[in-house]
């Protein structure tokens, strides 16, 4: 239904409005791509390969969707408007011929429109079928199965750049620990990275090469962690586990389940890691038990 809704929405836009929308989408994608690159730990070739593939997939999906939207708008623009033909006051026979001609033209327009609508519906159906069998659904079902083994289910977290910190804070609540807020967790994370620079710096490198970042970039990174919606990854997970003094368990569809600092006692904070849930990239959700009666509205159909 998401693809159908997108096509219906964009069909109401003018050419200029659609171009503006597409330009903003590409700008947002480029910003997220930079965040993805920064999440790669130096020397982690597997992660670098995964990020490269993810970026390529994001770009391809955006190209395909925008192309479909452009075609959809083009089809609507190509449909001719109803002609208004003045009938002269002349011969009745001429009026009859003119009326018949108008009926014929109207029928042709209706036939053309019906054909174009059928083709459009066919394309939408094909896109929907591909979507149901795509990596997003496969990944989501795999994670749900893994959680069910432990009597857990996904608790949805908004995809706004703060997903890691929101998920961790929710887990602090459900495990009976002292809760915090996103701003405080970000500042604690940044302070931990600064105070343990020797441990973190070797895994922080430039986007365009494999060189470790310099002092200025290190400080900027810490400031961004503390004060912006910079996406959190492996480094931030490690820092959060350290400052909160509790293990953090991450469930993912591909790759092993990871636990940060399992030396700490107590039940772990259990998060889920998604590579394909949202078009703009990676995402963290929280978890709850099946007998937890908190409202957990399903937001997956609205994923951007």
TrEMBL record:
<keyword id="KW-0175">Coiled coil</keyword>
<dbReference type="InterPro" id="IPR049772">
    <property type="entry name" value="OTU_OTUD6"/>
</dbReference>
<dbReference type="InterPro" id="IPR003323">
    <property type="entry name" value="OTU_dom"/>
</dbReference>
<protein>
    <recommendedName>
        <fullName>OTU domain-containing protein</fullName>
    </recommendedName>
</protein>
<dbReference type="InterPro" id="IPR050704">
    <property type="entry name" value="Peptidase_C85-like"/>
</dbReference>
<feature type="region of interest" description="Disordered">
    <location>
        <begin position="78"/>
        <end position="133"/>
    </location>
</feature>
<feature type="compositionally biased region" description="Polar residues">
    <location>
        <begin position="78"/>
        <end position="88"/>
    </location>
</feature>
<keyword id="KW-0378">Hydrolase</keyword>
<feature type="coiled-coil region">
    <location>
        <begin position="19"/>
        <end position="68"/>
    </location>
</feature>
<dbReference type="GO" id="GO:0004843">
    <property type="term" value="F:cysteine-type deubiquitinase activity"/>
</dbReference>
<feature type="domain" description="OTU">
    <location>
        <begin position="152"/>
        <end position="290"/>
    </location>
</feature>
<dbReference type="InterPro" id="IPR038765">
    <property type="entry name" value="Papain-like_cys_pep_sf"/>
</dbReference>
<feature type="compositionally biased region" description="Basic and acidic residues">
    <location>
        <begin position="113"/>
        <end position="131"/>
    </location>
</feature>
<dbReference type="GO" id="GO:0016579">
    <property type="term" value="P:protein deubiquitination"/>
</dbReference>
<dbReference type="Pfam" id="PF02338">
    <property type="entry name" value="OTU"/>
</dbReference>
């Amino acid at each position: 239904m998401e693809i159908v809704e997108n096509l219906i929405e964009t069909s109401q836009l003018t050419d200029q409005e659609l171009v503006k929308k597409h330009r903003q989408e590409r700008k947002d994608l480029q910003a997220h791509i930079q965040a993805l690159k920064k999440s790669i730990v130096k020397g982690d070739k597997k992660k670098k390969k995964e990020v490269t593939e993810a970026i390529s997939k994001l770009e391809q999906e955006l190209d395909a969707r925008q192309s479909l939207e452009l075609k959809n708008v083009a089809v609507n623009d190509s449909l001719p408007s109803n002609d208004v033909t003045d009938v002269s006051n002349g011969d009745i026979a001429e009026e009859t011929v003119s009326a018949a001609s108008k009926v014929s033209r109207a029928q042709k327009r209706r036939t053309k429109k019906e054909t174009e609508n059928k083709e459009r519906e066919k394309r939408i159906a094909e896109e929907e079928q591909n979507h149901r069998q795509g990596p997003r659904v496969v990944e989501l079902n795999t994670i749900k199965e893994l959680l069910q083994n432990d009597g857990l289910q996904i608790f949805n977290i908004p995809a706004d750049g703060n997903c890691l910190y929101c998920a961790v804070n929710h887990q602090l609540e459900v495990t009976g620990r002292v809760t915090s807020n996103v701003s405080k967790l970000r500042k604690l994370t940044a302070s931990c990275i600064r105070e343990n620079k020797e441990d973190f710096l070797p895994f922080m490198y430039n986007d365009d090469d494999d060189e470790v970042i310099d002092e200025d970039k290190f400080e900027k990174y810490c400031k961004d962690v503390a004060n912006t919606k910079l996406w959190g990854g492996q480094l931030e997970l490690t820092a959060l586990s350290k400052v909160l003094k509790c293990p953090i368990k991450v469930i993912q569809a591909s790759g092993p389940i990871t636990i940060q600092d399992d030396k700490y006692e107590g039940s772990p904070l259990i998060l889920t890691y998604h590579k394909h849930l949202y078009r703009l990239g990676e995402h963290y959700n929280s978890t709850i038990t099946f007998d937890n009666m908190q409202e957990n509205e399903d937001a997956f159909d609205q994923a951007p």
